[in-house]
Amino acid sequence: MINGLVYFIVGLATGHLRTLLPTRGELKPRHLLQTTWNHLRLRFPKGDPAVKYNILQKLSYLSVIGILAPLMLLTGWAMLPGLNSFAPWLSEIFDGRQGARLVHFVTANLLVLFLLGHLLALIAVGAWNEVRSMVTGRYVVQDGD
Length: 145
Prior knowledge:
Blueprint lengths: L1 H13 L9 H4 L1 H12 L14 H24 L9 H6 L3 H29 L1 H10 L9
Helix pairs in contact: 4-6
């Protein structure tokens, strides 16, 4: 929770979260479908476009940061028996602890799918360059075809 809060604050302060906002052009169905089709065929951007987030990355990161992480946190709190005396309304939002447990379980599975998708994409695009860029910030731009 603290890590997520720090990420959010630093992202706001540095403007990094702004880079996750899709443009109007990216939200056009044609662009979205083309990007999805390219990813399914394992055709990833080369050159300068490779260093920027594409629409699928933006939407998935925004979903994790704006929907899944808050839901995971809220449902976790809603399942805490001790928090019931302080905020009984919280578990009622999810129709009781069992409802919170269900949403928590589904959210956890979606986060695992997000992680697996990242690992598969990492392997598909070349793990060494990607991992090095995550650790050191040095990304080697490969020329386009």
